[in-house]
Amino acid sequence: MTSVPPPDVIRCAYAELVVTDLAAARWFYVDLLGLVVTAEEPDALYLRAFEEYLHHSLVLRQGETAACARLAYRVRSAAEVDRAEAYYRALGVRVERVPAGATRGIGEAVRIEDPLGFPVEFFFDAEHVERLTQRYDLHGAGAISRLDHFNVVTPDVPAAQRYYEGLGFTVSEDIEDAAGTVYATWMYRKPTVHDIALTGGDGPRMHHIAFATHERSQILHLCDHLGAARRPDMIERGPGRHGVSNAFYLYLRDPDGHRIEIYTHDYYTGDPDNPVVRWDVHDNQRRDWWGNPVVPSWYAEASTVLDLDGTPRALQERTEAREADVTIGADGFSYTRAGEAPREFKLGNQV
Ligand SMILES: O=C1C=CC(S(=O)(=O)O)=CC1(O)O
Ligand SMILES: [Fe+2]
């Protein structure tokens, strides 16, 4: 902890992913997902969703090894970038101040290796570009409106929660058990369910980046589009309705295996007394409200993250119980209505 006040974070703002085949990634993110190309270079794409007016919310950069190179938060003013620098220098983590343009379209920024091992950037100034909210002539049937959240894998969820609480984030929901083990936590700065989800597991790894649509029909269109492209294998999990967040969801894997969630219909969390929702890890509606099982890859796989030199981070193993180990008997395979003995397999699901 430090006596230096934290920067005033507004929201999650952009991610930078390393992809091994930029053309293949372009098909997935632009031709399929419909993200808008703000700028294009031989080895990089700067993409945004239709309601976004900052230069980008996703950077795809050609590289040898697929990885997450950066998770960026926007702060409320240029002065808050200075405060971020002071806060993290006081925390004693690696801090770099970069000039405007270090990332195309982004102003002066502070980059850190955060206490959880993630490459994180704080910025305020960014180039404004056309906001395409009402350019319905450009929206496809699967139009994506904005970046919604990051989900990261980290071994010690309570420690990660404490770090983010120090940064001014608030818990909206979590998954825990009767012994007090916390398996995952959702935390926000913008008044929705989360800007960051902390998923218990070997980390640091990036679990997914999520974009929001306005309508469930847009998510269903993306599934149909993948079918038409004969690429339904890019659908990892869903479509479905989450228990946590109540959002309608779809998880896709991009050509490099990076997980992208398309998400809609979560809820407002902006009042100071917003109630925290706590889920029992043995409630098999927690991750899918309809009780459908979470596919094993969703628990097991996540993207490598890089340090500020671009070197992949070594992983620290989770030492507490792992959700996939404690819920296989409840993840769509049994019912957990209070007082009822767990049943066998949920109809239609077999291990
Ligand atoms: O955004 C999310 C909201 C809810 C869930 S969960 O699978 O319902 O826990 C996962 C998630 O973190 O991707
Ligand atoms: Fe998510």
UniProtKB/TrEMBL annotation:
* Gene3D superfamilies, alphabetized: 2,3-Dihydroxybiphenyl 1,2-Dioxygenase, domain 1, homoprotocatechuate 2,3-dioxygenase domains
Signal peptide (from-to): none
Domain VOC, by residue range, is 11-125, 146-265
Its required cofactor(s), as named, are: Fe(2+)
Q: Supply one GO molecular-function term.
A: dioxygenase activity
Q: Which PROSITE patterns match?
A: EXTRADIOL_DIOXYGENAS, VOC
- Key words, A-Z: Aromatic hydrocarbons catabolism, Dioxygenase, Iron, Metal-binding, Oxidoreductase, Repeat
Database matches in InterPro entries = DHPA_dOase_Mn/Fe (IPR011981), Glyas_Bleomycin-R_OHBP_Dase (IPR029068), Glyas_Fos-R_dOase_dom (IPR004360), GlyoxalaseI/FosfomycinResist (IPR050383), HPCD_C_sf (IPR044904), VOC_core (IPR037523), Xdiol_ring_cleave_dOase_1/2 (IPR000486), XylE-like_N (IPR054560)
Q: Name one Pfam family in it.
A: Diox-like_N
| Top-level taxonomic group | Bacteria
Per UniProt, subunit arrangement is: Homotetramer.
Q: Which family does it belong to?
A: Belongs to the extradiol ring-cleavage dioxygenase family.
Please give the name of this protein.
Answer: 3,4-dihydroxyphenylacetate 2,3-dioxygenase
In its UniProt entry, the species of origin is given as Pseudonocardia hierapolitana
